[in-house]
TrEMBL record:
Its cofactor is Zn(2+). InterPro entries: Ribosomal_bL28/bL31-like_sf, Ribosomal_bL31, Ribosomal_bL31_A, Ribosomal_bL31_sf. GO terms for molecular function: metal ion binding; rRNA binding; structural constituent of ribosome. Binds the 23S rRNA. It comes from Ardenticatena maritima. HAMAP family: Ribosomal_bL31_1. The gene is rpmE. Keywords: Metal-binding, Ribonucleoprotein, Ribosomal protein, RNA-binding, rRNA-binding, Zinc. PROSITE patterns: RIBOSOMAL_L31. Belongs to the bacterial ribosomal protein bL31 family. Type A subfamily. This is Large ribosomal subunit protein bL31. Zn(2+) binds at residues 17, 19, 37, 40. PANTHER family: 50S RIBOSOMAL PROTEIN L31, CHLOROPLASTIC, LARGE RIBOSOMAL SUBUNIT PROTEIN BL31C. Binds 1 zinc ion per subunit. Part of the 50S ribosomal subunit.
Amino acid sequence: MKEGIHPTYYPDAKVICACGNVFTVGATKKEIHTDVCSVCHPFFTGEQRIVDTAGQVDRFMKRLQAAQELSQTRGKKKRKKEILEIVDEDETAEE
């Protein structure tokens, strides 16, 4: 190995998760902060979490519900227009 070009290796680096879990790994930084780890990641926990960004999930769920209500009575294009009108009405009523 060439001298002076490699970062310092810390065999006991701390990894701190946002959920509060702390464990050690080998790394080139002494302390690493992370948002998700194996204790809180949905793949390992088996629970589903939806991160809602500015109401996107709520709007989608409203559209899905409106589509299911109108699915058997209307054609596809008419149904899409009606769904968007229903969602828009709900959003303006909430504001």
